[in-house]
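Chapter summary example.
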Amino acid sequence: TRLEAAGIRTIVLKGAAVAHMLYPDSPQWRNASDIDMLVDPQQFLDADRLLRGAGYARSWPKGELPGSGIDMLLHLANVFDYASPGTGRLVELHCRTQLNPHAMPASFDTLYLSTVEIETGCGAIRGLDGPPLVAYLCRHAVGHVGVRLKWFGDLERALRRVSAASCTAYAAPGKHRASRYPAEAADSVLSVLASAASGGTPDRA
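The structure predicted for these 205 residues follows.
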């Protein structure tokens, strides 16, 4: 990507990354309405300048960033929105995976070490893999109140990829232990969906 070429470490969240990793035979099945990119928080403002210099129109926050208080802004918000030149497609630049910094407390360096290179029709990108991918997908789906069924399809495939049956195995440990609720809620939804799909008794995904 343009960001990686400029030396800005970037992780593509969901979208093209999961489409080509989890649906390798038919990535077109897993469409995406926007592009979500997590960048090294130490390089976040550099990434913002690069995108705007390349013609991406920042739709939020609007106008010039404050000369002071930028740290507070990035504490209260984890994503800037842009419209790509030409198509106007939404691009979201993330300085952390979740709005709540304790929801997924792993550092960017730790997450980046868990990424893999994924080939797409437009070149290689980096995406999360393994337990960090499962943990992220659980928190994202539940954090957005599960409004899109495809997020749980992604979760089911991610769990099969790591040969696991439950999201709760990846509830984040550590000093600021994240709540198990997102993983438990995701497991519950996956169980109901699996039961409905098979016409049987709810079981683990």
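To summarize the output: The helical segments are 2-5, 15-22, 44-53, 70-76, 108-113, 130-143, 149-161, 181-198.
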